[in-house]
Amino acid sequence: MIIDIHGHYTTEPSAVHVFRDKQLAGLADPARRPSSADLGINDEALIASVRPQLDFQRERGSDLTIFSPRAAGMAHHVGTEDTGKEWSRLSNDLIHRICTLLPDNFAAVGQLPQFPGVSPKNCIPELERLASLDFVGVNLNPDPSGGYWTDPPLTDRYWYPVYEKLVELQMPAMIHVTSSCNPNFHHTGAHYINADTTAFMQLLQGDLFRDFPELKIVIPHGGGAVPYHWGRYRGLAMMLKKPTLADHLMKNVFFDACVYHFPGIELLTQVISSDNILFASEMLGAVRDIDPETGHHFDDTKRYVDRVEFLSEEDRYKIFEGNARKVYPRLDAQLRKRGKPGKVV
Amino acid sequence: MIIDIHGHYTTEPSAVHVFRDKQLAGLADPARRPSSADLGINDEALIASVRPQLDFQRERGSDLTIFSPRAAGMAHHVGTEDTGKEWSRLSNDLIHRICTLLPDNFAAVGQLPQFPGVSPKNCIPELERLASLDFVGVNLNPDPSGGYWTDPPLTDRYWYPVYEKLVELQMPAMIHVTSSCNPNFHHTGAHYINADTTAFMQLLQGDLFRDFPELKIVIPHGGGAVPYHWGRYRGLAMMLKKPTLADHLMKNVFFDACVYHFPGIELLTQVISSDNILFASEMLGAVRDIDPETGHHFDDTKRYVDRVEFLSEEDRYKIFEGNARKVYPRLDAQLRKRGKPGKVV
User: Does residue B78 come out as left (phi exceeding 0), alpha (psi in the -120 to 50 range) or beta?
Assistant: First the structure.
């Protein structure tokens, strides 16, 4: 079974955008507020909206996508904390409906109603609601300011209430920023990758997993710059008198495989243990075109993993399925309940 | 000849730090201002201070280091524009003296008196002074705020006066941030690498080299995350309707080789044309320890380049010498004047 742990709902029906426009317009003119959070999207329309994802699953040979709302759409820095709560709830409910309609194709990851300068503990009610709806994880934004990085680092106690709840609920967090309102940072070309690199270095500097040995953190986009600069990070761990990266971080930190060319995936799989890599494509995501050098989509990352010669069958199983079951135990439980226990490795 | 294009003066005599402390203390209490910018460091002491660099050059087999003030020391966000001007002048003068004393070992790159929110054109007098002192390039900080990214992107006309002057003086700019006052960003572990990635993406989004076809930009630290995510950037160029990266950027943008493990250097040299890579070690820089996995210093990057099997002799010449002469034409002219013309490739 091939599990793609990083897919966003980037094919939403236009009613979703109409709602969001009205909701934000309502901040300036209350008369423009949407009259209802019922978008009037029926199940057929919802299934039709994820047809592109289903087609890619079949064409590329993946089975199940861990699916969350559009990352750039979270926009925690926009509007008010209250509009953010309503928007998160609505976005998560759509994911829930899709995953309920197509449980063999999608498992749900939620967005949190974070707001810059507001304690993340305000997200706990939504986090508990997500757990009650069979979500298997959440996206956690390390920079709710949208590119100005005004909240504390991830190792600060500011974030601890969320970590406590995540551990209690057996949910991992994927560290994922949203759109950027800072003109210095293109969202998919700079802000996302920088956030991945930044999160890893914050974890390296701190001792978060001493306090949360059960917490699992997924750093997407192949870990940002980290695997490419693995020597730098090993050296920085030495300079900062930390244990080796393997002991200090890599029982708790995992990288996805959203790297859009073969040499990048080859480096990732060469440098990072196969225990710490999760297959992912981010589809339909940052880069949607066909690579003229290969004739295949840039984000058809399965091809790259398949091409890496030195991976054993066991390595491949871990990357494509086993690690996802380990990092997302709620998904594993759901699959077992449906008669799909996975392999013992 | 082996040219290391990225070295910082991180072994300054303590008198430099004493001066800086007094200078900044003087902002709070004018009575504490340093009485003179003459640090009382004689030539012998200056030469002794770069003994570690000279030893490493000999041990590792490099000849000449392009040498600039400590990057984290620039701290453009600290103090006032005036203290920054004095500090830049003093820092650059030390580099000038070292390069004059040891012209076969060091060539000078300067720091600019940038200040957050202040037009970079205020740096032009120092830039012209540097040219008169035979400096071959400058470090340009894309984020003088020190981690809050409050100035415009590098493609904004805000920066054009500096680019015009750089082209006139035949100087390249290495894009290099300084220390971070944002607790989210460790300087060498996050801020530096993020700035590299950010700068490349800004250049990708813009059309700077249509206006400045002669401008040369060096992105250090192996190009940040860019080569590892080269497929992403090729795909983003397509999505943004830009020419290929080769046509759009790679006549003007160069990456250094400060990547501290073999797999990273192998990827860099595999993905990026040998016309666009400049040998560098950042010594003595971000990571100073010996890698326990190899028994050699992490930043002994020449070993990694030497180990890459698929590089031709011509590739190696370009990476170790030829590209540095091309990107730093003032250095090439100085070397020719000293009877070292380089090879024709």
Answer: beta
